[in-house]
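User: Show me a protein chain along with its predicted structure.
Assistant: Here is one chain, sequence first, then structure tokens.
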Amino acid sequence: MERVREITSGGANYALDATDNAGAFAQMTKALGNMGHGALVGAAAPGTESPFDIGDLLVTGINISMVMQGDSVSQTFIPKLISLYQAGLFPFDKLVKKYDFADINTAFSDSEEGTTLKPVLVF
């Protein structure tokens, strides 16, 4: 987050957290610049808490959105994503790593460590 703040001269205008990692979410809030907008799209388990300093963040004026199912209309959005992928403009497959079900613990560990963004278990 310090590097993000450095290369953006004070913090990112926009940030997206899709990791399902409470620590990454807290870092995203700290990487935002004044009046920045962050969005959480990871589906954390109920009861997951993320530590952040309310007093420090309050003076930044940041905005955090919780995004449910992409806040989109799936009948139009999914075909659009498919066409973008087919055109080579949305390489989502580079964000996904597949794991055999027997390697479920490795998938969880890799996700927690940030080794992979979206682990997918294959049965």
